[in-house]
Amino acid sequence: MQVIDASSLVYAWDNYPIAQFPLLWQWLREEINSVRLQIPFVAIEEVRHVTPDCGAWLAASGIVILPVGSQITLDANRMKGLIGIVGDRYQAGVGENDLLIIATARHHGFELVSNENEQPTLPKAMPNYKIPAVCAMAGVNVSCFSFLTYMKRSNRVFG
Known about the structure:
Elements: E1 2-4, H1 6-15, H2 22-33, E2 37-40, H3 41-50, H4 52-61, E3 64-66, H5 70-82, H6 96-108, E4 111-113, H7 131-136, E5 144-145, H8 147-154
Parallel strand pairs: 1-2, 1-4, 2-3, 4-5
Helix pairs in contact: 1-3, 3-4, 5-6
């Protein structure tokens, strides 16, 4: 099963309009209805803020919203320490919501679909790590891939 990040949903909504790609959105609804695709609470809030229409579509499709409880918060704080973020001094890498999203995927043992940029050469300062780099760290170990990879892995034809 997968947890999806706001970045992937906003990417899909902006680049694959539902009117032009109805079969893609039908497949996503099937993924949601079969509970193979879920979303963390902080990610759905981001989607609703950035793309209200997409947030409404997700709600109408019945997406399962995963709450952020104390275990997830503790794990996000542990990851924050692993990458060396002190207090609220986030830098150019992950933010607080990103860590909660990664911790949610990790807590449930799910893969993470995120369109955060991969960093082929990791920054020297770990607080500048983006979601894929944090996911790949020892002690985190969450499988992370893009929306396009998610589509390709489905082997579905949308045309």
